[in-house]
Amino acid sequence: xxxxxxxxxxxxxxxxxxxxxxxxxxxxxxxxxxxxxxxxxxxxxxxxxxxxxxxxxxxxxxxxxxxxxxxxxxxxxxxxxxxxxxxxxxxxxxxxxxxxxxxxxxxxxxxxxxxxxxxxxxxxxxxxxxxxxxxxxxxxxxxxxxxxxxxxxxxxxxxxxxxxxxxxxxxxxxxxxxxxxxxxxxxxxxxxxxxxxxxxxxxxxxxxxxxxxxxxxxxxxxxxxxxxxxxxxxxxxxxxxxxxxxxxxxxxxxxxxxxxxxxxxxxxxxxxxxxxxxxxxxxxxxxxxxxxxxxxxxxxxxxxxxxxxxxxxxxxxxxxxxxxxxxxxxxxxxxxxxxxxxxxxxxxxxxxxxxxxxxxxxxxxxxxxxxxxxxxxxxxxxxxxxxxxxxxxxxxxxxxxxxxxxxxxxxxxxxxxxxxxxxxxxxxxxxxxxxxxxxxxxxxxxxxxxxxxxxxxxxxxxxxxxxxxxxxxxxxxxxxxxxxxxxxxxxxxxxx
Length: 496
Fold this sequence. Notes:
The protein has helices at about 10-20, 270-285, 285-290, 310-315, 335-350; strands at about 35-40, 45, 55-60, 65, 70-75, 80, 85-90, 95-105, 115, 120-125, 145-150, 155, 160-165, 170, 175-180, 185, 190-195, 200-205, 215-220, 225, 230-235, 260-265, 290-295, 320-325, 330, 355-365, 370-380, 380-390, 395, 415, 415-420, 435-440, 445-450, 460-470, 475-485. The chain is mostly beta strands.
């Protein structure tokens, strides 16, 4: 992933790293600003349907370039390739290889007149990119009456939200009643035939909306009901994103990234010591490629604070700077040099263990409505949860500073700021994610996020952070995370 770094001028940051020690309570060509030219593509696997697209992200000095500013080449024969909108589509399955050149018309000291990226490969596969609906109808270990739907987000007039109603883990074929949660009146839904993995056929009720709306339902069976735990289906009037294709279906050896959360605030004068340390650690590709960053403005009455009270939820209601790695490891603020060391050690410790799950994502945005299909693939047997946070870059606000030199960090420009945290189940106080239940190694499961984007956010400056947590003892901790470069970027499973 291209990192959303805290500042712009890495040259000055490097000078600071070499000369400042202060106390206090994110195959490319390298230039004076680190990875001065960088090209990435995502997803790396697409469906060969002429619609599914791999999107290029090419940056110079951290600024995104357009298709008119760069030249694409076929890496197999070195011929120029047109790439409208920085997107690649095809109807022919196969592996495609490209590289990108950029002419630097005004080189600064130490820069090159031309930059060439490494080779970027895209795998185009036949048919659907792993999007066939699979409904689990086998017995499980649930107790009592439960009701689920095949998808909590559907396209009106197109998709079906199929109900699976169980009692003590067994799928019920009859004897239950479905109620509209708004009126508490019983309703009759149409049915569709579904077959379990063992060959058993079920006539299952389904809901199909005729317009964009939100409907909730509860179920009664004998003396039990799900009135206090209804299922909600949101219907939108645009196509629901499909799964990205899995480039290695037989593998569970995933790229592992740590999730870094810094609790901060504009009024926190010691926060620049940690901000600077995070900046320089993640500017180093060795560590920047192994971590994703989120800034949580929770200190004081901060105007950048998200609606969700993440500070209180994680136990730091008005304490900053505090860094939390993977929702498990706490790093206190010391001095710049110590902070750098502790951050590197924590990232190394986190990623030294194999990720217990991988993440794939595809999104769709219509106006201020964002739908994200997050797919996780388990590497081990375990209990998992998932979350999606909206982050915004380029926010301006005067940062209090108790003495950390502002040598190009630009502490008053704030990136990776958490705007929305969608990772709390109804009735829960934990933001460790929405419950995905128990998965076996190799299993995949989807969660559909539907997020309303605030009109005050600049959507072009927003991107998404997705994470999966795994149960370890009695608590959940992050076992993998990925961040997109935009609200519409798709991400395939990434393997080692």
